């Protein structure tokens, strides 16, 4: 991705991704992402010398600006984690904001060269960090992973992951896992399902992908059919996994996630 540096005029409308201490500034009301011109918004302390234009949404640029203090809310709202806007903004805008968080993570974790240990510098012709001592260059990390909804007749396999185990709010979702070196996506689906649930699947079909900036995943979504085996869960990953009928579903992941999209795809095919 090109590292876009443009001069913003006081009258140019833009979306503003203002990040401090791992959180973003959100506005109260229907539109949580700040929008407006510089001369309309209370940005007296905003330093635009290091801004990055992430992309465009609805014809206007999304501008990433980093603040050092999350107490600087400039009267616009308050700082929240990225998940706060999930389902509250259109998917393309969420993906752009997520890209901004991934860029911040990249800049923070590549301050020093992994080859010679010298300080890295951000170059201005593309989004990368370069060591001018040894020439080593790094780009934002993207971690490919699969996520799969599995159906068995008119049932779907849903699991409560260890990280989703909130008493009284246990979310049941699809299985997922990171792709290993030298592995195809289909092989990853088969391996992850067998490791986590002890069953084998067939008819693996790709549906859709979703950037998932927690912190830098790219989720590749699949649907598969049950082939054989008895459910035997990996307790390091899952608290529970069961076959559910669609008229008796547990608490599901929110809309806007690829997990929910896959669940709804299977529901449509089974009803």
Q: List the uncertain runs.
A: 1-5
Main sheet makeup: 6 strands, mixed
> What coarse outline follows from CA principal-axis ratios?
globular
Distance between the first and last residues' Cα:
42 Å
- CATH architecture descriptor text of the largest domain: Alpha-Beta Complex
Description:
With 271 residues, the protein is an alpha+beta fold. It folds into 3 domains: 96 residues, Nucleoside Triphosphate Pyrophosphohydrolase, CATH 3.90.79.20; 32 residues; 128 residues, Alpha-Beta Complex (Nucleoside Triphosphate Pyrophosphohydrolase). Helix content is 17%, strand content 34%. The chain contains 3 helices and 15 strands. Strand 10 and strand 11 form a beta hairpin.
Topology of this structure?
Elements: E1 14-20, E2 23-27, E3 35-36, E4 52-57, E5 60-66, E6 77-80, H1 91-109, E7 121-122, E8 129-130, E9 137-138, E10 143-152, E11 155-161, E12 175-178, H2 185-197, E13 200-212, E14 217-228, E15 238-245, H3 258-270
Parallel strand pairs: 1-5, 10-14
Antiparallel strand pairs: 1-2, 1-3, 2-6, 4-5, 7-8, 8-9, 10-11, 10-12, 11-15, 13-14
Features of this protein?
alpha+beta, Nucleoside Triphosphate Pyrophosphohydrolase, six-stranded mixed β-sheet, 3 helices, disordered N terminus
Condensed summary:
The chain is α+β, with helices and mostly antiparallel strands and 271 residues long.
């Amino acid at each position: 991705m090109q590292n876009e540096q443009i001069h913003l005029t006081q009258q140019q409308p833009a979306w503003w991704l203002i990040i401090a201490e791992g959180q973003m500034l959100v506005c109260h009301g229907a539109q949580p992402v700040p929008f407006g011109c510089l001369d309309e918004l209370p940005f007296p302390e905003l330093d635009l010398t290091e801004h990055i234009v992430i992309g465009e949404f609805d014809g206007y640029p999304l501008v990433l600006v980093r603040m050092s203090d999350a107490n600087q809310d400039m009267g616009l709202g308050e700082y929240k984690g990225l998940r706060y806007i999930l389902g509250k903004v259109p998917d393309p805008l969420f993906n752009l904001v997520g890209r901004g968080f991934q860029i911040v993570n990249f800049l923070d974790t590549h301050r020093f060269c992994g080859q010679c240990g010298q300080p890295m510098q951000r170059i201005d012709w593309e989004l990368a960090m370069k060591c001018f001592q040894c020439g080593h260059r790094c780009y934002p990390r993207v971690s490919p992973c699969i996520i799969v909804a599995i159906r068995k007749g008119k049932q779907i396999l849903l699991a409560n992951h260890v990280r989703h185990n909130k008493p009284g709010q246990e979310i049941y979702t699809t299985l997922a896992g990171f792709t290993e070196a030298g592995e195809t996506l289909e092989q990853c689906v088969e391996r992850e399902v067998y490791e986590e649930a002890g069953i084998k699947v067939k008819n693996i079909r790709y549906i859709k992908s979703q950037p998932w900036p927690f912190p830098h995943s790219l989720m590749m979504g699949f649907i598969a059919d049950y082939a054989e085996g008895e459910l035997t869960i990996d307790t390091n990953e899952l608290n529970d996994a069961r076959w559910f009928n669609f008229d008796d579903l547990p608490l599901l992941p929110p809309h806007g996630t690829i997990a929910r999209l896959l669940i709804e795809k299977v529901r449509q095919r089974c009803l």
